[in-house]
Structure formats: structure tokens, C-alpha cells
Amino acid sequence: MASLTIRKLDENVKTYLRLRSAKNRRSVEEEVRVILRELIEGREEPLTPLAAPPDVAPASASQRTGALPEASVTLIIGGGIAAYKSLDLIRRLKERRIEVRCVLTKAAQQFVTPLAVSALSHERVYTDLFDPQSEFDAGHIRLARDCDLIVVAPATADLMAKMAHGHADDLASAILLATNRKILLAPAMNPLMWNNASTRRNVAQLQRDGVALIGPNAGEMAEAGEAGVGRMSEAVEIAAAAERLLRPPVPRPLAGKRVLITAGPTHEPIDPVRYIANRSSGKQGFAIAVAAQAAGAEVILVSGPVDLDDPDGVTVKHVESARQMLEHVQSSLPVDIAIFAAAVADWRVANEGEQKLKKTSAGMPPLQLVENPDILATISKLTDKRPPLVIGFAAETEHLIDNAKSKLARKGCDWIVANDVSPATGVMGGDRNTVHLISRKNGENDGEIAVDSWPVMTKEQVATELIAHVVKSVADKSLEPAS
Ligand SMILES: Cc1cc2nc3c(=O)[nH]c(=O)nc-3n(C[C@H](O)[C@H](O)[C@H](O)COP(=O)(O)O)c2cc1C
């Protein structure tokens, strides 16, 4: 049976469903089920768009671009004085683009009303395990699983005791027992209840079971004259803890590092309309730039002429010739890591025509070639601004490893990524690459040379692997930041 994730639906469909479910006082999932049932029975309501109420805000920029992934929480509100703070928590979660569906225990309804909770969450509120409206298809199981996280706030001593002992005699405890989602508890109770031996045992058991806790904080209690540990964490603290569990921070091992990457071919002009080029697509260098940026580095990509979109979050400098590429590379220094993946032309035309060269009866114009600057060797041999880690690429069509080893020695770089670009491999312009990482053992100039041969990979995989090696090297050497 296919399952439908509401939050992945088109915004207009979602808005329609939300409005229709609110009108019918049903949850969005229930509304979808009703629509499907009616369709099957041939008595569906016409899909006329419901007028949006005036306070429905247009999608924010982040919603339109999908910058933040949506997430959903089942919020269980227990019967404690702090239940009023859960009303604010609903707002704080929604601010973070987290959908909230609420469950109130019987005791919680003595402190906050289902109506207030429903008005703030824009969803139906659930209170009863034996509700025929939502239990026709085991609604408590849906509440337990159709979410990314369960938050219990306030988590009463009673609810935690039930959880620790596996009780399921009401909707909240049945959901907590039936879930396979992460659970976050925000305990709130009188300090003596919190310090009671049975509560201590229950909390310890729940922590062993993998349940996450936020708080309680120390402070004044609702009971006059009492203070101590037991106040529920503030709504913003709970929302932030929920967000950390829902969207764990991505590791950024190259944060604070500047990485310079070259990519693509160079075009060496013959005259204003003609040039010498090579078959490099720039895909490998661009993939490395994306991987370095994802690892948190500040990335400068100097690219020859390519047919690729500039990667997001990367500073791209577009150049044509080898000399322009060198100029931009030099002006981008200092950097912590330089990766020269561009296929720079070895030669350029010495006698570049100022006007378009014409066919004449005198025969073909003699094209004199002169050597281009060697960007890899120039940067590797710098004495002042040499990047601590310089990586070159060797594109060879024969004697790959031997040629790459001698290139490593000749150019003075730290590593060479050697790839076989003979036509049969399809590497030039293709999406896959087979590479060998050639480096000096122990980083010594006169030391032994290590060859690490990688299996056939996509260029993105090669990029990820190379950046993983860079991260390891940075950690081992603890490179000083470029200044
Ligand atoms: C005024 C009042 C305030 C209460 N505050 C708390 C509290 O902060 N924490 C707590 O664990 N229990 C508190 N209780 C006790 C719970 O409401 C009681 O244990 C109830 O059975 C909890 O039900 P629940 O866990 O299903 O929500 C309070 C009771 C009353 C009458």
C-alpha cells in the first residue's frame, strides 16, 4: 500500500487540504482519507478552491525555495501548570516550519483547552484513545508514526512513570509506546516530585531507552514560596532542542578554510574568432568545489570556458586563457588548500592574429606555439604565499602512474590526482573517473611515494573522496588558517 507524505505535496494542494480539513474539523490526513473514500464511492465534493482567509500569509521566500525542509511533530501536552507554555511552544515550532499536531491528556485539559490548542496549531486536537472518528483506522498509531519527532511538554511525573513502565491506558501513553520516532521530553514538576526516588529511577530508565530530555530548569515554582529544579524549559529552548533533533547540524570540517580550485579547459586564441582548446568539461573541478563548499570551506573556483552552472555558495571567476587563469589564481592567494583540476593548455599561439586570419594563395599561416605559464609549478614553488596543501591533476594517456610520479617531483606539489584520459576511458567530458592519488609518504620531499588507486567512481564520488582526504590531512597537520 502506498503511503502519502502530506508535507511533500504542492503548496496549493496543501493549502486546499488545510482549509478543507479545518472547515470539517478533521486532521489533514483524515481529510485525505475522506476525499479518497468519497472518490471511491463516487460522491466526492467538487474540488472548488476554498477561499483563503485573509490572514493566510503568502509562502515565505524559504518556503518557495524549500530552503528549510519541513518537519512534523506530535506534541503531547501533559497535565501540569506549565501546559500554558505549550501554547507558545506550538507557535515557536511553527515559526521553524515544523508542523504540529497536538494530543492533550485528560489532565492537560484542566489547564489548557483543546480549542486554544487547535486554534494555534490549525489542526484538530486529539484527546481520546477510543475516539471512533480517528480510531476507525488506528489513529493513535498514525499519531505515533506520521511525524518526525514526538515532544512531550510538559512531561509530568505521571507520564514519565507510565513511559518507563510501558503503560498504554490513554491516548498519550499509547502513542508513546507505539512510536518508532525519537522522543523529546520537557519535564515540569515540583522540585520534590523531580527529586523523588521513583522519578529519578524513571528518568534514568528513559534516558537508557534513548529518550531525549530538555530541562527542567531551576527557578521559582507556581506554588508560593517554592523554588528549585523542576521548571519546564522555555518554549524557545524546547523548540531549539526539537529542531536540533529534527535537523541535526551538518558537519563542516573545512569551516574557516579557504580552498582555491581551478576547473575546465583554457582557450588559447589564434585570432579574434579562433582558439586552441581541449575536451575538458570542467565537471570534475566543479564537483570538487561543491564537495569543498559542503564541507564548510570558503571556495574560490577559477574556471575556464565550460557549459556548467556556477555552484551555489561558491565564488566563481570565469577566465579564457592560461595566463588569465594564473592571474586570478595569484590574486586569490593566500588560501589554505589549492586544487588544480583545470586542463590548462601547455602552449599558446605566439603570433596571435589581431584580425581574423584569411586564406591566401601563400598557403597556411605558420602558427608558432610558445609555452604557457605552468600554474601548478608556479604556485607550488612560491616561497611566501605557497598554500600549505597543493594538489595537482595529471591527465595522461600512457604510463599514467610513472608520469604522475615524475610530475609530483617536477612540480613540487603535495599530491597528484592521476587520471587516464585516453579516449577509451571516456573521462574527458564524461561523468565517471578512475583516479590514483599519488602522494609523498609522510609528506617528505625525498621520501617514498604512495599510490592509492580508487575504483571507478562518478566525478561527484571522486570529489567527495578527495575532500575527505583533504579533511584528514588538515586534521593531521592542523593547518594554520590562511592570512
Ligand atoms: C494544580 C495542579 C498542578 C499540577 N502540576 C503538575 C506538574 O507541574 N507536574 C506534574 O508532574 N504533575 C502536576 N500535577 C499532577 C498531575 O496533573 C497529575 O499527576 C495527572 O494525573 C497527570 O496526568 P497526565 O500525566 O496524564 O497529564 C498537577 C496537579 C494539579 C491539580
From TrEMBL:
Domain DNA/pantothenate metabolism flavoprotein C-terminal as annotated: residue spans? 254-472
Q: Which cofactor does it need?
A: FMN; Mg(2+)
Q: How is the cofactor bound?
A: Binds 1 FMN per subunit.
- EC number(s) from the headed UniProt entry: 4.1.1.36, 6.3.2.5
Instruction: Write out the residues that bind CTP.
Output: D346, K356, P373, D374, I375, L376, F393, K407, K411
What GO molecular functions are on record for this protein?
FMN binding; metal ion binding; phosphopantothenate--cysteine ligase activity; phosphopantothenoylcysteine decarboxylase activity
Q: Using the UniProt annotation, give all residue ranges assigned to the region (Phosphopantothenate--cysteine ligase).
A: 259-483
The Antitoxin FitA-like ribbon-helix-helix domain sits at: 2-38
Region described as Phosphopantothenoylcysteine decarboxylase: spans on this chain: 1-258
The protein's matches in Pfam families, at most eight in alphabetical order, are given as: DFP, FitA-like_RHH, Flavoprotein
User: Hey, which pathway is this one from?
Assistant: Cofactor biosynthesis; coenzyme A biosynthesis; CoA from (R)-pantothenate: step 2/5; Cofactor biosynthesis; coenzyme A biosynthesis; CoA from (R)-pantothenate: step 3/5
Record flagged with keyword Repeat: no
Q: Which GO terms describe its cellular component?
A: phosphopantothenoylcysteine decarboxylase complex
Q: Name the Gene Ontology biological process terms.
A: coenzyme A biosynthetic process; pantothenate catabolic process; regulation of DNA-templated transcription
Catalytic reactions of this protein: (R)-4'-phosphopantothenate + L-cysteine + CTP = N-[(R)-4-phosphopantothenoyl]-L-cysteine + CMP + diphosphate + H(+); N-[(R)-4-phosphopantothenoyl]-L-cysteine + H(+) = (R)-4'-phosphopantetheine + CO2
Q: Which residues form the Flavoprotein domain?
A: 73-236
Q: Which family is annotated?
A: In the N-terminal section; belongs to the HFCD (homo-oligomeric flavin containing Cys decarboxylase) superfamily.
Q: NCBIfam families of this UniProt entry? A: coaBC_dfp
- Described purpose of this protein according to its UniProt entry: Catalyzes two steps in the biosynthesis of coenzyme A. In the first step cysteine is conjugated to 4'-phosphopantothenate to form 4-phosphopantothenoylcysteine, in the latter compound is decarboxylated to form 4'-phosphopantotheine. Catalyzes two sequential steps in the biosynthesis of coenzyme A. In the first step cysteine is conjugated to 4'-phosphopantothenate to form 4-phosphopantothenoylcysteine. In the second step the latter compound is decarboxylated to form 4'-phosphopantotheine.
Q: What is this protein called?
A: Coenzyme A biosynthesis bifunctional protein CoaBC
Species this chain originates from: Bradyrhizobium neotropicale
Gene name, please? coaBC
